[in-house]
Amino acid sequence: MATFKVKVLYDFQGEGGTAEMNIVAGETLTVTRTDVGEGWWEGFNSSGQSGLFPEAYVERISGSDPPSIPAPVLPPQNNWGDDEEDDDWDDDTMYSEIGNNHSQSQQHIYSNEQNQNQLSHQFDNLSLGGGSNMGDNKGTITKKSLNIFSSYVKSGLEGYILGTSSNLPVSNKKFRIFRDSDEILGRWEVISNPYTVQIASPKKATKMGGLKSFIAYQLTPSFSNVEVSRRYKHFDWLHDRLTAKFNVIAIPPLPDKQVSGRYEEQFIEHRRAQLQEFINYMCRHPVLSTCDVWVHFLTCTDEKQWKQGKRNAERDQMVGANFCMSIDAPEKEILSSLAEPRVEDSLNYVTRLDQSIKNLMQTAQDQHKKCVNMYKREFMRIGESFFALGSAFEYNQQGMYSKASVDVKNIGSTYMMIGKLYEEQAKMDWQPLFDKMYIYKGITGDLPDVLNLQRLSEQKKKECERNSQVPQTALADVRRRADVLTYTVFAELNHFQNERDTDLRLAMKTFLQEQLNFYKNVVSKLEETLDKFD
Amino acid sequence: MATFKVKVLYDFQGEGGTAEMNIVAGETLTVTRTDVGEGWWEGFNSSGQSGLFPEAYVERISGSDPPSIPAPVLPPQNNWGDDEEDDDWDDDTMYSEIGNNHSQSQQHIYSNEQNQNQLSHQFDNLSLGGGSNMGDNKGTITKKSLNIFSSYVKSGLEGYILGTSSNLPVSNKKFRIFRDSDEILGRWEVISNPYTVQIASPKKATKMGGLKSFIAYQLTPSFSNVEVSRRYKHFDWLHDRLTAKFNVIAIPPLPDKQVSGRYEEQFIEHRRAQLQEFINYMCRHPVLSTCDVWVHFLTCTDEKQWKQGKRNAERDQMVGANFCMSIDAPEKEILSSLAEPRVEDSLNYVTRLDQSIKNLMQTAQDQHKKCVNMYKREFMRIGESFFALGSAFEYNQQGMYSKASVDVKNIGSTYMMIGKLYEEQAKMDWQPLFDKMYIYKGITGDLPDVLNLQRLSEQKKKECERNSQVPQTALADVRRRADVLTYTVFAELNHFQNERDTDLRLAMKTFLQEQLNFYKNVVSKLEETLDKFD
């Protein structure tokens, strides 16, 4: 990212022995990274000293553009903080086998160079098509579209379409898709036993006789009512498993890794809320809410079983396109003329949506910051001006008692109170809106990959149809497998549309209600003050 | 004043042939003057080009300090705009005789050097005493206190106290002061026929066959219901007469002279509101509301009579301390032990009040500017973010109509509407509050001069008491005249206290009501939007 300048609003003393730096109110810093961890930025001062500082302590100088949002990306290289420690009881298996499994699905049937080139050429066209509606370096999709080749390779699509993956052990569990109409080509079977999971306020726990401390989140699923304790690193492992397994399903993002600092409590509480959003999305998804690794994550309380479950998850071969082998899709063939334009439209739709969601997410973050800092400060200043005038009225000699003094001081107190309301309110409206947009930005960032996979699957199918060496019986199987994948993609799209119209819409409504409550609160404070005048 | 840097928010094209300069959004300017005229600042850009530009088009860079308020000072040297033209029908007498008259009262009885020095020494002490409670270069009093010598000279205090002004023609009109109690040493007689004056929306008029245009304000006093037409320059002449005449009474300030530009209509309407504030203060004051020059200003419609009235006003010799000869004060002697500490307290009180009023005035100006620019922009941006998301929802293919689209677009429209409300509202709350504070800042800036005049009068009296050459009969007259002046000062103080508790308090209440209306309006907009969700 490009660097930008900020002005320091408040002094901050970095903690010794960490990457934090000291900053002094009034000085100008150059920001070099905003994706260090939630609430922290990296930059250097005019003396060239660099380090981390809290984002909330600085103000962007160049004016109207809000700072860009830290990407919800890879774990940082750095080793600060709690979440990067890997000395937990299950560490031996926790990270060691990640990434082994789906390399098995990266075998290529067509290994000759000609075909390889042909594929690459197709990917070029696709990525151009997928990216054509987007603004310059905006949104989260561009980067992903460029990675289409690697995501294709990882997806094991060829093996799946050509049937060479058919010898893989298939799980008994089937996910059903219904075709209610040609308008909605596919939808997931409705969740038969819906449930919720509550994540309680996190606790700081210690281990190694108190030498090391970490944050433990208590999760209680409604179906079992048995609390399990999970750390962020467990979520992180889970998320890695989910993204490895599901190329045809969009996975909600986890909150950024956090650099622990003096704002721990505030940040940890916010992370809890963000993890709750992640959990909620998982619970509402017909496939994700019942998949083995998630259920294991939600229920396992025994150390031995935990390790066994982890090993099972990491050995799962129903990953990428092969996951479609676990799908029970309608028998009816899908006409390309029906599916193709819809996939194209959806790509455009998701691309535009991704940008809008990112934009609103930035607005929410910007407003949250402004409520906590600027607006609060503005109203405090207004309050102080009135209060000082009220006090000056009172200052006069004895016997000249002024009713105006009390009234004007009351106005002052009221505005100072409203300033505090701004700060408190931001947790109730802008922050939850940001958290919700963050989840959906992750989803709209994933969906183009899902849609592109369908396009590649169709091309692969057509390739087979043109290839005279492929026997008719095999071709029928290829078509069927391509259809199952297309049904899966449409079921996933349909799920997203439903979420947009229920969950996302409800989030908007809740936001509006909270804003309304806030302004009603302001009104009642002003009314009380006005009543005291009479 | 010190210069400071601003960032240009919007492009602005200066009008050709004026001192206005072109500015371009994003560039940095150095501001050299803020007291050019209301809404205009002077400065230069990085190329060194200098000129005027609208204050509202720029944003101070260095952060939290609001820009200092242009002082309500002398007429600008420049000759732009309407108000500086002096070719009106009454110009020959309008400005030419200003300042002739009160030079008559600058005669000194004690012309020997020793006494002059003694007086200067006293003034030094007084100005130190008056200034001791003030912050550094804050408030409007410091400067005035330093001018105490010249205001003393102009006041004609010596002539009045020593009785050498007694040969001046005394007007028949007497202003009565009552002493109800020792707590309130003096109060003006209550206005027997209270009245109001409405100033109607100003009209642009032309003269010299349309070659010259000017702004005419229509004033209608309630006692006559006869409309008179006055220009700003007439107000300016009136104000000069009032300040020349009344050293024992605080005169409300006129709005700053205006540089006419493209914002004429908005600025002229605001000036009308400011002139109405000036008029209101005049009408409520027991002395000012009935003094000849004011009544002449309010009622004269005949050109010949206007010129005669002007000449009378300019020849008035009951000016400065001599005005006390028109006072009908209680006979009872005032004990120095009663008056002295009260005058000291009042000086401290007024000094502190002046600072508080200036501070609130700055806050009001700052908030007005923020409502019109920043807050409006913020809410527009919020609205646009929601609206864009709602539009992206809609973008999907046919048959996938989204209720969420309409709802989210409604949220967007609502916030854009609230942005506009901010802009409109500022005229209803922050601007009137600023105008009111502006008047009172003028008053609290004058009151120390009034109080210091009383202290000088007491010193002069004591000097005479110590002087064995002054006969007892003359001494009794000196004491009486000093008492009349003290009564006048206390009546004026008392009037100010009453205004504070009625007029200023009412302004606060009105402000609060307007703020309440605004937030109620926001609440109802949000409620309507929420209702549409269901």
Query: N- to C-terminal separation of chain A?
Result: 58 Å
Main sheet characteristics of chain A: 5 strands, antiparallel
Query: What is the spatial order of strands in the main beta sheet of chain A?
Result: 4-3-2-1-5
What is the overall number of helices of chain A? 13
The largest chain-to-chain contact, stated as pair and per-chain residue counts, equals:
A-B, 66 and 67 residues
Q: Name the CATH superfamily classification of the domain at 4-60 in chain A.
A: SH3 Domains
* Percentage of residues assigned to helices of chain A: 40-55%
Q: Give the C-level CATH assignment of the domain at 4-60 in chain A.
A: Mainly Beta
Q: What coarse outline of chain A follows from CA principal-axis ratios?
A: elongated
Polypeptide structure, described:
- The structure is a homodimer of 534-residue chains.
- By secondary structure, chain A is of the alpha+beta class.
- Chain A has a domain at 4-60: SH3 type barrels, CATH 2.30.30.
- Chain A has 13 helices and twelve strands.
- Chain A has helices at 91-94, 113-131, 141-146, 148-155, 157-162, 232-245, 264-284, 292-299, 303-315, 336-394, 403-425, 430-466, 472-533, and strands at 4-8, 28-37, 40-44, 50-54, 58-60, 175-178, 187-188, 197-199, 203-207, 212-221, 228-230, 327-328.
- In chain A, the strands form three sheets. Chain A has a five-stranded antiparallel beta sheet, with no helix packed on it.
- Chain A is elongated and about 105 Å long.
- Residues 63-149 of chain A have low confidence and may be disordered.
- The interface between A and B is large, with 66 and 67 residues.
- Chains A, B: Residues 61-88 are annotated as: Disordered.
- Chains A, B: GO terms for molecular function: phosphatidylinositol binding.
- Chains A, B: This is Sorting nexin.
